Amino acid sequence: MNILHVLSQTTLTGAETYVATLADFQIQQGNRVFIVSDTFITPTKASIVHQPIARRTYLQRVRNILFLRKFIKSNNIDVVHAHSRASSWVSHFAVLKTRVPLISTIHGRQHLHTSTWLYNVYGDRQIAICENIKQHLIYEVKLNPTHISVIPNGFMFSEPLISSFVKSHSPTLSIIGRTNGGKGEKLAQLFIHVLPVLLKEISSLHINIIGGPLQTMPTEGQIAWEKLRQQFSERIHWIGFVRNLSDYVLQSDLVISSGRVAIESLALQVPVFAFGEAEAFGIVTLENYANAKASNFGDILPRKEEKFDFQKVVKNIIRFFQQKQGIPTLELAKQIRNDYRIENVAQQIQTMYESARMQRFYPKHIPVLMYHRIPDVPSSSKNRIFVTKENFEKHLKFFQKRGFTSITFSDYQDFAIGKRPLHEFPKRPIILTFDDGYEDNFQNALPLMQKYGFRGVIFLLGNLFPDYNFWDVALGDERFSLMNQSQREAFVRAGWEIGAHSLSHKRLTQISTKEAYDEIKKSKSLLETSLSISVISFAYPYGDYNSEIRDITKKVGFSFAVATDSGGLHLEDDRFAIFRVNIFPDETIISLLKKTASWYRKYYYWKRKK
């Protein structure tokens, strides 16, 4: 992919550090990456182009839009990724009326005014770096919740984990962060209300201030600092901006910080007092980590409010140095590294790029039909999940006449990741799926599909035995044979996609989490081993799933999962809850016309609210 990151900034920010890390990893994965920004000083392998995105006069905005529009076209950009409202604003108009998607990462609270609510400039998808930002975007900015994902800023953790650190120096407190804007205002309050008490109460305490220059601090902060310097000159140190930040972190007994610095410090097993623009959260432990993470370690609350009790801050820090309570465990450091490692973050973002790209390119509903048995003659089965061979051929003739081209989920993924060019994507795609793997699928469906030039997706159980529909028979229904191994292999040779349908067709929401995990994961591995293929799609038995089952399906390595009568309006609304239309024995040309039409999906969604 050709990826363009757009930033608006005139000083070093956490967003810049993150973008440099993300861009370098994306390049490592084979992408071409460009960065357009006012300034950019962090070393990166991406191509840097300087443009005054932060300059927000109307004339300059127009110039920025025209510049980006030309840049996108001349460099064949596949996706634009903006990292502030100013960059989202110009990027929105730069991609307008094109097939290039816009992704916006929201790093902080957005200014609320009428235009924020009336006009969404944040693009096709929004990334909230923490849960509180997502809540802010939903309830205050009024963005569509289905388009918002929580994906934290990623890190390249290079320092190894060790079990403990031994510090022989005097107790050291490091306060790390920017000295301008909202962070500078809060830093000034620390100078006024907290540091004088700490320095008096802990006679051996040394304090380092690491971040920006003193001159960018609010005036009251500069005055407070001068008083501290005169009284405690040997124990307070203004370090300023440093490149070897981890060295200073490792020399600290406690770090006061938020955002990226808090995460890096905890990953090094250095205690952190989370203190940001929104709240004085406190010492981060494994027990309160989830709440600290939700606020980006003190920077963001769901609504515009502040929670600062400076007397409590003093008490907690003094207690920490007296009792050493809150030392981060190795388990917490491992959790941090797992949640924020750039490999995990970049993979989620790459999937989002592909999803937005496909939805922008083909915004229409893709009909996904669900077949089961294709017998020679009608069945008396009470489930009524069959279409006779004769009627099935009529269906295929109808699809052919209507100009449908069958694709599989594997085909779709190939287009999404750029393995196949988008100009080859069919004008009228349709996905024909078959559940359970009945023997009559081999005898009747496969030959007819080949006759009319169609391929499908067949969802098989991981186990070959029992070799009949035992789940239905147990409820008193008729017995029908399932395919054997050689018949399964025939579908692979015919170019069909093989999907998984669990091990034994159990209702996944009605069994234990461990058993559900095994049903899903082992079905994938057994099919891949026995058929020498990659299995990327899963069908929930009975269409029965919940958020936990959905997450397991994603975690074990599937790329798509299909339901029955629930899901989004578009496949990309949720790749793990894809809507399918059930096909019954008495379908007519009119009903098939309805079930393959976009209006029907919209009507069904409105009627059932799912």
Provide a descriptive summary of the structure in words.
This protein folds into three domains: about 1-150, 3-Layer(aba) Sandwich (Rossmann fold); about 170-335, 3-Layer(aba) Sandwich (Rossmann fold), CATH 3.40.50.2000; about 365-490 and about 560-605, TIM Barrel (Alpha-Beta Barrel). It is an alpha/beta fold and about 600 residues long. The two termini are about 35 Å apart. The strands form four sheets. Strands 3-2-1-4-5-6-7 form a seven-stranded parallel beta sheet, sandwiched between helices. Strands 10-9-8-11-12-13 form a six-stranded mixed beta sheet, with helices on both faces. The chain is elongated, with a radius of gyration of 29 Å. A hairpin with a 4-residue loop joins strand 12 (about 270-275) and strand 13. The longest helix has 20 residues, at about 340-360. Helix 2 packs across helix 3. The chain is about 40% helix and about 15% strand. The protein is built from 23 helices and 21 strands. The model has no long low-confidence stretch (mean pLDDT about 95).
